[in-house]
Amino acid sequence: MSLDVSEDLLHKAEAGEVGDADFIDCVKQSLPFAWELIAKVVNDLKNGVVSSSGSTQFADNTTPPPDEQARGQLLRVLASDAMRGALERHYGVKLAFQNCHRIAAFPAAEVDSDTYRKFISPRGQLLNQSPELRDC
Fold first, then answer.
1. 3 state DSSP class of 41
2. Is 28 buried (19+), middle (13-18) or exposed (0-12) by CB count in 10 A?
3. Model-level pTM?
4. Which residue in 106, 80, 62 sits closest to 26, CA to CA?
5. What is the pLDDT of residues 84-98, one digit of tens each?
6. Could you write out the DSSP letters of every residue in 79-129?
């Protein structure tokens, strides 16, 4: 199961639409590693921290998760359109993802930039591969 849904939140969902704030809180409580990692990357972006490729146009994480549970959290939050979309709206960014750990945050206005297109391209994916990441 991806999320720990409280009875109250489940009742809200059964009765109608659930707002982003309630959904975001559920994600934050259910997937703390993923939440913290994404928050760090977004904070790095907003503070102008240089990415692993030397760019200040985006911020990224290149450190693998510490264990399989953490890796699973990251995969679940980024594989879900609902969770990923809610996080992007919450932070005002576009999230991009490679491998099991390389996540990047781009300003929403940069989605059509060359830097973003390079990051999400097949070439970008291939260049981010290495034997030690094959089973991640």
1. helix
2. middle
3. 0.87
4. 80
5. 999 999 999 999 988
6. H-HHHHHHHHHHHTEEEEEETTTEEEEEEGGGTTSHHHHHHHSHHHHHHT-
